[in-house]
Amino acid sequence: MSFNTFGTLFRVTTFGESHGPAIGCVVDGCPPGLPLSEEDIQTDLDRRRPGQSRFTTQRREPDRVKILSGVFNDDTLAGAVTTGTPITLLIENTDQRSKDYSDIRDKFRPGHADYTYHAKYGIRDYRGGGRSSARETAARVAAGAVARKVIHGMRVRGALIQMGPLTIDRSRWDWEETARNPLFSPDPVAAEHFADYLETIRQEGSSVGAVVEIVAEGVPAGLGAPLYGKLSADIAAAMMSIPAVKGVEIGGGFGAARLRGEENADEMFPDDSGRPRFGSNHAGGILGGISTGQPVVCRFAVKPTSSILTPRATVTTSGEAAEIVTRGRHDPCVGIRAVPVGEAMMACVLADHLLRARAQAALD
């Protein structure tokens, strides 16, 4: 299997399977001299970690990260710093329950990658999907923590803004609220509605989709390249690579199709120093594939978790009709834990483009 790496100068390669002994990643291209400890990475991993509320899978993984290479620490330094060499991060799997999948080992799970992996490779890991499992995203979150060191001065935050048919009220948006509820909702009222709705979905053994919004602030103007190196294109590709993501939009996104030109174009005014100031941000901080200096705004849609208790029709590996019920421990709304994953992917893309920009043009 190829294509386990993303990025150009800031490159991330992930490895491992959901029910293997460990997962992890190798981060290549991180500049030297950046302070980096396991605690720095653990903070982000703890936000994604499963089993922290009744709204996520009850798989109990501590997700403790180990740095195996790429940092150095001695008495002359204030702490561990990156050396510029590949950074290897390891996360052991400790709570696999492969027996949960023994009854369906010969059945393709509808909505999962079981059939397509089998069709492409002639072999698949039926224990939770192997590489196709969202378990792999823990490695991305670890890499994102390294990327945040590279993009020092930029702030990347995410929030759950829709669950099924329920949406937030943007007039109540509070970033601090995303840390006070287990659903990453920026709206405390919506968080209560989300929780009640999801509890009903969970008790019915079903699942529901969601929409996540990622905002990057402090992004300098000039990141990205026209045509085939667009910042927007790389962000979209990064978000679409997250398991269960089915749609991505930048800025106004699909809503821009309902606007007239004079509504959509972000007017520009000179600030006190004569530099452009924008009156709105329908473009999501990107014009012509290059950052404008405004917040970079991205949203992605996450489909309902495919592992549900409702019987579904399927086909066996030998071509026979069958019925399947997927038991085990699964997220009733995988969009919740996708929030820190989306933040990590945004951070990795920005780190990559920052390094590219430094190699090609001067930034203020």
Produce the secondary structure layout.
Blueprint: E1 5-6, E2 11-16, E3 22-28, H1 38-48, E4 65-69, E5 71-72, E6 81-82, E7 87-92, H2 114-121, H3 137-150, E8 155-163, E9 166-167, H4 188-203, E10 210-217, H5 231-240, E11 245-250, H6 261-264, E12 268-270, E13 276-278, E14 286-287, E15 290-291, E16 296-302, E17 312-315, E18 321-324, H7 338-360
Antiparallel strand pairs: 1-2, 2-3, 3-7, 4-7, 5-6, 8-9, 8-10, 10-16, 11-16, 12-13, 14-15, 17-18
Largest sheet: 5 strands, antiparallel
Order of secondary-structure elements: EEEHEEEEHHEEHEHEHEEEEEEEH
Number of helices: 7
Which regions have little confidence, pLDDT < 50, spanning 5+ residues?
Answer: none
**Largest beta sheet: strand ordering:** 1-2-3-7-4
Say how many strands there are.
Answer: 18
Amino- and carboxy-terminal Cα gap: 41 Å
Q: Structural class, from helix and strand content?
A: alpha+beta
Which value, in Å, is the CA radius of gyration?
21 Å
Shape annotation = globular
- Kindly state the percentage of residues in helix: 10-25%
* Strand content range: 15-25%
Mean pLDDT: 91
Give an account of the 3D structure:
- With 364 residues, the chain is α+β, with helices and mostly antiparallel strands.
- It has seven helices and 18 strands.
- The chain has helices spanning 38-48, 114-121, 137-150, 188-203, 231-240, 261-264, 338-360; strands at 5-6, 11-16, 22-28, 65-69, 71-72, 81-82, 87-92, 155-163, 166-167, 210-217, 245-250, 268-270, 276-278, 286-287, 290-291, 296-302, 312-315, 321-324.
- A five-stranded antiparallel sheet has the order 1-2-3-7-4, covered by helices on one side. A five-stranded antiparallel sheet has the order 9-8-10-16-11.
- Helix 1 (38-48) crosses helix 3 and helix 1 packs across helix 7.
